[in-house]
Amino acid sequence: MLSALCNFILKLASNRLLIPLRYVSNQLDAKVTWHNESKSITVSKDEKVIELTIDLQQVLVNGADVSLEVPAKVYYGGSTYVPLRFVSEALGASISWNQKAQQATITTADKQIVVGVAPAKPVPKQKATKARLQQLNDKLNEARDISSIAQVRTYFQPYFTDRFINSIIQSNGLAYSYEYTGFPDYMPFYTSSTTANATQSIEIGTNVYVTMERASKLVYENGVWKIDSVQFNKIETPISP
């Protein structure tokens, strides 16, 4: 049985547990489609279809109305969070909760995913400022093609970790040459006092609604936030005729 362990759950004051929709759906092999105009999401797996709308408690499961105690919401990092138990069970998984460890176990026929409550966030003065985020965005755009930069390591050292610099040197730049403006789409989601995730997206499609998401992992190193890795994700949404 495959297994994974991640700290992703948000525990609300009401003791409700929320989890990033895209993460749990991907782990359970479900497809997620975002409808930008209606701010709604369709999750499908096999013959099960779930339709949710941001901030609305009413959802549809195979066309039938279901009321959530907590609606889907956008939280830190721009991720859509949904009730852990509802989505997991609707997609055919079972849930168990370990109060002492503050962990939930999601179990299917061939997979077990253990997720824990998100760890402590940095104190306010340690969080990345908008000015710093803009600096990192500008340097990522410059890193699309490093062929004209003489001292790559020295140039990017104030903004990128050594690990990330090694990566872009090896690949001679980032995987895609898209330029992103503004950093990020939402303020970072802090996964600990020294780590965070931030995402940006741009539209690149014509006949279909296609966005290219640039997901950055940040680390707090020597008193400043730096980029530690970048991943690109293409998201396609058909445009209704």
What does this structure look like?
With 241 residues, the protein is of the alpha+beta class. It folds into two domains: 2-117, Copper amine oxidase-like, N-terminal domain (Copper Amine Oxidase, Chain A, domain 1, 2-Layer Sandwich), CATH 3.30.457.10; 124-238, Nuclear Transport Factor 2, Chain: A (Roll), CATH 3.10.450. It is 17% helix and 42% strand. The chain has five helices and 16 strands. The N and C termini lie far apart (43 Å). The model has no long low-confidence stretch (mean pLDDT 84).
Keywords:
241 residues; alpha+beta; Copper Amine Oxidase, Chain A, domain 1; Nuclear Transport Factor 2, Chain: A; 2 domains; seven-stranded mixed β-sheet; five-stranded antiparallel β-sheet; 17% helix; globular; Cu_amine_oxidase-like_N
Write the layout of secondary structure elements.
Layout: E1 2-11, E2 17-20, H1 21-27, E3 31-35, E4 40-45, E5 48-53, E6 58-61, E7 64-67, E8 73-74, E9 80-83, H2 84-90, E10 94-98, E11 103-107, E12 111-117, H3 130-142, H4 152-156, H5 162-171, E13 189-190, E14 195-203, E15 208-221, E16 224-238
* E-strand count: 16
Strand order of the largest sheet: 8-9-2-1-12-11-10
Percent of residues in β-strands: 35-45%
Approximate helicity band = 10-25%
Count of folded domains? 2
Question: Secondary-structure element sequence?
Answer: EEHEEEEEEEHEEEHHHEEEE
The secondary structure category is alpha+beta
**CATH homologous superfamily title of the largest domain:** Copper amine oxidase-like, N-terminal domain
CATH class placement of the largest domain:
Alpha Beta
Task: Compose a concise summary of this entry.
The protein is an alpha+beta fold and 241 residues long. The protein is 17% helix and 42% strand.
